[in-house]
C-alpha cells in the first residue's frame, strides 16, 4: 500500500563539504543514507529519518543538517498534522500506534511555574565553596521516635534498613532488553562511582552486573522476568512495579526480536519469544494482596532490604500511596505523566496519568495528614530535566528523584521516540549487537557521573543561596517555593503561595 | 487572643522575621539574685534591638508558690480579663491573683494590664489528663479563643516579663530589680516587618520551658510541617515558637536528653558522624535519620531554660554569635562578651563555643569550664577558652 505519510525531516547535505566517506551510511540504523556506487555519491532517503542526529554528530566534515519538514497543511486547530498523520498510520497498518519516550504533549510543566527562594540580609546565604553543604539522603522507613535506655543512654530503637544516597538522584528502572547491557553497565558503574543507585527494571540482572549489587535496585514486575532468590537478595532495594508513568494500567511488551541469547538467559524466557508483562500483577488484585507480596519479599530477604512500590501518578495517587505505606512499603515511587518508556501505546502515553508535581504534592500532604510520612521514603520520577526541577521536587516533599530520560540523554539520546523499534542509532534502546557496542560502558559511566556531579554542585549552590546547608532542611519546605501564573486551586494543591506574597 | 495571627503577623508573611540580642546568667549553686545585673547587661547590647520588643525570664521566682502553675497574662481590655478569670476559675483552683507591679515610664506607651495567677490543678476538671497537658490545652484555648487576652508565661516557680520597648526599659517598667531568681534570661528584639505587640516580644514560654532566640531559621517550613504531624499548630509564626515546640516534643514527649536535642537541632555533619566511634555513630546517625526534619538550618543562637538548667546552642556553622563565660558558680551566655564584662569585669574563663556545641549549666551537674577545646572538625571554628 502506498503510504500517504510525508517525511518528517529533511536531510540537508552540503555537497561542498561531503567527502563520500560513508560515516553517515554506517551510523544510520534507519537506512536513511546509502552510497550510490554508480553516481559515486552518498544519497539520503529522508522518509526514514527520525531526527536522532546521529549522522550529524558523527559527520567528520559537518556536511549534514536535519530540519523538521514543516509541510504546511491548511490551518486547523483540531486537525493538526499529528492527528492527521496518526490516522494515516493506522489506516495503513490497522494497529495500535506504538511509541517510545514520555508524553510530549503541551500539558503544563509545573516545574516551570514555580520559583525558588534565596536569602537576603536577615539570614546569610552560605557559600558552598567555603562551607560544607550536605546532599546525603537516607531512604527507608523511619520510626516515629528514637528511644534510649534511660540509664545507659544506649539506643534501644532498632533502626529499619536504610540506604544512603550521596545525592538525591537515582537512575530509573530501565530493563535489560529494553536498553542494552552496555547501558546498564554504564548506569551501574556511574551509580557506584557517585554513591547512588541504578535500577534493573523488570528484565532481571545480568550475571556480569552482580558486582554492582551495593548500588542496585532490583525490580519485580508483573512478568516476574529473571526473579529468583539470588536476584532478590542481590540489591539493596527490591522494587515492586505496579505501574509506569508512560503507560499507567498497561503491561510491558518486549518484542521477540530483542530477546537475544543473553536477554533470554537473564529474563529466564525462551529466546526469540515476546516478553509480555501483564497489565496487573496476577497475584495483586487489591491492596491486601500487595501487602502480602511486600512481606513475602521481606521474608525472602530476611528483612534486610527496603521494599519499594512504584506506581504511576493517577487521579487518586494520594489515597493509593497511603494504602501502600500501610501495606508495609519502605519506599514509594510515583512516576508522572512525563515518565518514559521503551514502548507504549501512543494513545495511553499521551492521555493517561497526571503531572508528577501535582501527584507529589498531594501524596506528601496526605501522608503528613495521616502522620505516616516518616514510614516510607517518597521518590518521584517522570520528566526531571535539571537540578532546578530536583530542588523544587525536594521542596514539595520528595526524598529523592529518579531520572531515566535525562540519564539516557547523557549517553546520547535525543528523544527521537524510536525506542520501540529496537533500532536506536545511539546504541541505547536496542539489543542489536552492532548498535549496542556504540556505548562504551567506561565512557558512558563517565558521562553519567559527570551529569550527577554537575547537578550536585548546582544543588549545593541552590541550597547555599537559601541559607540551608543540609538537604533535609529543604525537604517539604514549601515556603521556599512560590507559584507563577497558577490558579488558586493549583497553588492550594501544591501547598505554595503566589509570587509576591 | 482571638486574632492572634493578625496581631503577630500583620502582613501575613511566611513567618515573622527578627533578630536580636540575647543574654543568660545562672548561678549553678541555686543562689537567687536580683535583676539589676541582667538589665545592665542587656542594655549594653542596646544596638542589637530596635525598641520593638524586650523581655526577661526568671527561674526560682516564686519559691513560696513553687507547687502552683504561675500564669502571667496580658489583657488589652477589661472584657478579656473578666472572661479569662471566669475561665480560670472553671478550670483550676485559683490560689492567688494580683496585678504585676509596674513603674510608669514615658517610653512605655499604651501597655496592657498584666496579671499573675497562681493555679492549682482541679482534678475534677482535668480528669485523667496529665497536669502539664491540661495546662497547655488551657493556655492554647485562652490564646486562640478569648478576646484581647494572651498568656505568655505558664511554668512553676518562674515567670516571663516582656513588652514593647528596649529590654532595659521593660526591665525597669516591671521593677525587675525587686525580684530574685537563680537563672535570668533577657532578650532585645529587632523585628523587620512586624509592628511590635507585647505578646510578640521574647522570651517565648510554654510550661517550664523558655526560649530566647537570635536568628532566622531557613528550615522553618520543614520544621513546622514536621511538628504539625504531632499536633503542634504554629499560631505565632515565629522561629522561636517552632524551637519551643520541638523541645517540648523531643524532651517531654520523646524523652530525649538535652545533649541529644542539641544533636538534633545542630546535627553534626554526616562525614563528621562517620568519623565517630561506632556506638556514637549509630546514635547520631539514627537521630539525624529520624529527626532530620527538626534540624534547625540557618543562623541561630538560642538559650533554652527550664527548671534548674540553662542551655546555650548555636547552629552548626555558628552563623550567630554566642560567648560563654564563668565566674565562680555563675555561668554567662551572651551575644557579645562586652555585655558580660559590663556586669562582671573579672571572669574565670571566657570562650566562644563551637558551632553546634551545647553549653549546659545545671543545678544538678556543676558546670566545668572546658580546660581546652579541641577543634574536632574542620567545619567547626572556635576560640580556646583563656583564663583572665
Number of helices of chain B: 12
Query: What composes the largest sheet of chain B?
Result: 8 strands, antiparallel
Radius of gyration of chain B: 20 Å
Regarding CATH, which class of chain B?
Alpha Beta
CATH fold group of chain B:
Glutamine Phosphoribosylpyrophosphate, subunit 1, domain 1
CATH topology of the largest domain in chain A: TIM Barrel
Backbone shape of chain A = globular
Number of strands of chain A: 21
The largest beta-sheet of chain B arranges its strands as: 8-3-10-1-16-15-17-19
List keywords for this structure.
heterodimer; A: 501 residues; alpha/beta; Alpha-Beta Plaits; TIM Barrel; 8-stranded parallel sheet; 15 helices; 21 strands; B: 388 residues; alpha+beta
Layout: helices, strands, pairs:
The complex is a heterodimer of chains A (501) and B (388).
Chain A: E1 9-13, H1 23-27, E2 33-36, E3 41-44, H2 54-58, E4 64-68, H3 81-93, E5 98-99, E6 114-116, E7 137-139, E8 163-165, E9 169-171, H4 181-194, E10 198-199, E11 216-220, H5 229-234, E12 237-241, E13 253-254, H6 261-267, E14 275-276, H7 287-300, E15 306-312, H8 317-326, E16 331-335, E17 344-345, H9 346-351, H10 356-369, E18 377-381, H11 387-396, E19 400-403, H12 405-410, H13 433-436, H14 441-466, E20 481-483, H15 488-494, E21 497-498
Parallel strand pairs in A: 9-19, 10-11, 11-12, 12-15, 15-16, 16-18, 18-19, 20-21
Antiparallel strand pairs in A: 1-4, 2-3, 5-17, 6-20, 7-8, 13-14
Chain B: H1 4-8, E1 18-27, E2 33-34, H2 36-44, E3 54-59, E4 69-75, H3 78-91, E5 92-99, E6 113-121, H4 123-126, H5 131-145, E7 149-153, E8 158-163, H6 167-173, E9 180-181, E10 183-191, E11 204-206, E12 209-215, H7 220-228, H8 239-253, H9 258-265, H10 270-273, H11 278-291, E13 300-306, E14 309-314, E15 323-327, E16 330-334, H12 337-343, E17 349-351, E18 359-362, E19 386-387
Antiparallel strand pairs in B: 1-10, 1-16, 2-9, 3-8, 3-10, 4-6, 4-7, 5-6, 11-12, 12-13, 13-14, 14-18, 15-16, 15-17, 17-19
Helix pairs in contact in B: 2-6, 2-12, 7-8
